[in-house]
């Protein structure tokens, strides 16, 4: 009967199984509900609200927010500070990412060998990661302090005059970059160390017998086999370059003349110091779009070159 | 590949090699001579130091003391790539991110061989090992046997005079292992290099090698041809390690009156070794009476467990001639099949004329013409 008549069996099944199916369906959604509620509450709804806000004016006093179309985006294009912090941020990314990755690979290679006190060195390299960025900034503030900071004391011993690395527009961004590298390299080192330990030592031995020296082994074996780690680390580094601004609060406050201000710091200032929330939302949308583009670009760029196991 | 392109294999001489790790002695005064162009197997149980020895020859591990001489040169302190040798690892150690072709020519590239030359050699090696269709693949897309061939290709393309192999077949299934044994041996013969081959599998060592170096606990137990190792084991360890099931070792005292007389004639406490396949049901005078305690039927032949005096022994008999469990069988053993070992040191006791010695001490041994140990023929 079930299979014998065209059309009928299907309807028959649905009728029979419908209560079962819908109960499973309800159970499934109930189980998902807590996680869904949180992800919507804290991620999706704020993101959509931000995008919506970027098309509105900032509400002030008795004047509520109005739809203004692309006005905020036009203002952004004409805003010299926006371009300044964007360029700063690009220099910041270019300054921190390659150096911190290179440094972390070098440190990982170093502490991957057996020597006395290895764990101590590993710990020392990792310490900056454990410290909060605010604390790191305070330590470096002492290093940079004109006159009696560590750097000036060392330079002073060689007869060099006072420096004001954080106070001069030419060096402020560089000084911030150095702090970020110091903070990040140890974190990335851990990933590279794990990657190095996953490479069987026989590969290097086989290469040695075939006449490869240390540099050739690194270039042709070790580095290519660590490519998945490099992809992961570089995406994280790019995100961090746009995300970590805590030290700017302590060290420079974005100055002098926005010389060390970054995009996220500018967003903070716009939104919470000047309470221009609509323009802040617009800047945020631009930043999210940029980060999304970078991440997609990196995946496409690296994908052909990465060997996954 | 034409043989002319290959230099003849070179000799390897190891002189009193010692390797220590802190307090443990991994290798204790190991001395080995490997003839040029020969196939030498380093055989032993795991942890006996055979792989460490191979790594010392390769230059991957420094020796604590002793000399490594290859050909005429003392290479003890030379780095691995200056010893003119290649190596196949147990794990194959293929570079997972490089294609088969890139893996094979890796060494040629690092040594700056020009592209046309590399390509020509790659074609010859790929043809020799049947890898032509796989050259563009990554190692992960190959079967175990194919990966093994790629590792071989990487080892032979440089045309070195010595090739070292560290248990290269242990990751293959039994059937493939058998095929590869034949192929490896043929390859080594054709190319003429000296082979030093580490294995824990006595079958591999015995079937492939010209010389087997049997190692135990960091020492050489015996270095001999496979035939010699089987027929004249130098120690009780060698006697038990080679042959399946292992040789029966019976304390002479367990043999009663004749055993006592044997020990008196030799002037020391001894163990008598008899291979399971050397014992035959007696037709005439019996050498021993054996109490049968169990039997396993294996098809062509059968293993019979039992006791001679107090000593447990195993005997291999034709499958159709299984004795009954619980009874006793009379067995005969030929004089040449008696091995006598010093009960204290385990070393072989030389018996220049075993037949007359045994006759004097009261063993009634079988004369020539004992039955073949493995036989499918039914006696009429």
Automatic annotation (TrEMBL), chain B:
One GO CC annotation: ATP-binding cassette (ABC) transporter complex, substrate-binding subunit-containing
SMART domains cross-referenced by the UniProt entry: AAA
Single GO MF annotation: ATP hydrolysis activity
Keywords of this entry: ATP-binding, Cell membrane, Membrane, Nucleotide-binding, Translocase, Transport
Annotated ranges, domain ABC transporter: 12-242
Pfam families: ABC_tran, TOBE_2
Protein family per UniProt: Belongs to the ABC transporter superfamily.
Record's protein name: ABC transporter ATP-binding protein
């Amino acid at each position: 009967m079930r299979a014998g008549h065209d059309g009928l069996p299907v309807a028959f099944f649905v009728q029979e199984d419908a209560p079962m199916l819908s109960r499973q369906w309800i159970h499934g959604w109930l189980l998902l509900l807590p996680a869904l509620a949180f992800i919507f509450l804290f991620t999706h709804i704020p993101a959509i609200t931000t995008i919506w806000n970027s098309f509105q004016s900032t509400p002030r006093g008795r004047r509520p927010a109005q739809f203004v179309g692309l006005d905020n985006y036009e203002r952004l294009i004409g805003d010299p500070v926006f371009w300044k912090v964007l360029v700063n941020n690009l220099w910041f990314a270019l300054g921190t990412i390659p150096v911190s990755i290179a440094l972390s690979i070098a440190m990982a290679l170093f502490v991957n060998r057996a020597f006395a006190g290895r764990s101590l060195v590993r710990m020392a390299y990792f310490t900056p990661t454990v410290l909060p960025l605010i604390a790191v900034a305070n330590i470096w503030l002492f290093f940079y302090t004109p006159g009696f900071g560590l750097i000036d004391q060392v330079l002073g011993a060689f007869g060099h005059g006072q420096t004001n690395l954080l106070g001069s527009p030419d060096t402020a961004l560089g000084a911030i970059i150095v702090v970020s590298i110091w903070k990040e390299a140890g974190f990335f080192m851990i990933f590279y160390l794990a990657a190095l330990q996953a490479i069987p030592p026989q590969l290097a031995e086989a290469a040695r017998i075939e006449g490869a020296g240390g540099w050739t082994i690194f270039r042709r074996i070790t580095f290519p086999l660590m490519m998945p780690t490099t992809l992961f680390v570089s995406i994280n580094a790019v995100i961090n370059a746009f995300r970590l601004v805590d030290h700017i609060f302590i060290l420079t406050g974005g100055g002098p003349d926005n010389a060390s201000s970054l995009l996220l710091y500018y967003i903070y200032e716009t939104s919470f110091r000047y309470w221009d929330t609509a323009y802040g939302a617009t800047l945020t949308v631009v930043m999210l779009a940029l980060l999304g583009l970078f991440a997609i670009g990196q995946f496409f760029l690296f994908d052909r070159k990465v060997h996954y196991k | 590949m034409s043989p002319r392109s290959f230099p003849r294999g070179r000799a390897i001489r190891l002189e009193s090699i010692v390797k220590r790790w802190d307090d443990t002695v991994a290798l204790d005064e190991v001395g080995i001579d490997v003839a040029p162009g020969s196939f030498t197997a380093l055989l032993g149980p795991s942890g006996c130091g055979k792989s460490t020895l191979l790594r010392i020859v390769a230059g991957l591990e420094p020796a604590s003391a002793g000399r490594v001489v290859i050909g005429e040169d003392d290479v003890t302190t030379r780095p691995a790539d200056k010893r003119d040798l290649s190596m196949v690892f147990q794990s194959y150690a293929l570079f997972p991110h490089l294609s088969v072709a890139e893996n094979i020519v890796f060494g040629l590239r690092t040594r700056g061989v020009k592209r046309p030359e590399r390509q020509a050699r790659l074609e010859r090696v790929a043809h020799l090992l049947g890898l032509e269709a796989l050259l563009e693949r990554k190692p992960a897309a190959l079967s175990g046997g194919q990966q093994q061939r790629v590792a071989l290709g990487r080892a032979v393309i440089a045309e070195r005079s010595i090739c070292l192999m560290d248990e290269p077949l242990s990751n293959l299934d039994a059937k493939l292992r058998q095929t590869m044994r034949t192929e490896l041996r043929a390859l080594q013969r054709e190319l003429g290099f000296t082979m030093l081959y580490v294995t824990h599998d006595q079958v591999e060592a015995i079937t492939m090698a010209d010389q087997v170096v049997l190692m135990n606990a960091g020492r050489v137990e015996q270095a001999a041809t496979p035939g010699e190792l089987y027929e004249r084991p130098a120690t009780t360890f060698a006697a038990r390690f080679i042959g399946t099931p292992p040789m029966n070792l019976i304390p002479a005292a367990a043999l009663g009156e004749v055993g006592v007389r044997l020990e008196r004639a030799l002037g020391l406490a001894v163990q008598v070794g008899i291979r399971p396949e050397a014992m035959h049901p007696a037709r005439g005078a019996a050498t021993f009476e054996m109490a049968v305690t169990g039997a396993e039927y294996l098809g062509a032949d059968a293993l019979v467990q039992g006791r001679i005096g107090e000593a447990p022994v195993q005997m291999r008999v034709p499958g159709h001639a299984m004795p009954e469990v619980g009874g006793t069988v009379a067995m005969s053993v030929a004089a040449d099949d008696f091995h006598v070992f010093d009960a204290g040191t385990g070393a072989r006791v030389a018996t220049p004329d075993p037949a007359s010695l045994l006759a004097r001490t009261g063993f009634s041994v079988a004369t020539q013409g004992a039955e073949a140990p493995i036989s499918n023929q039914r006696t009429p």
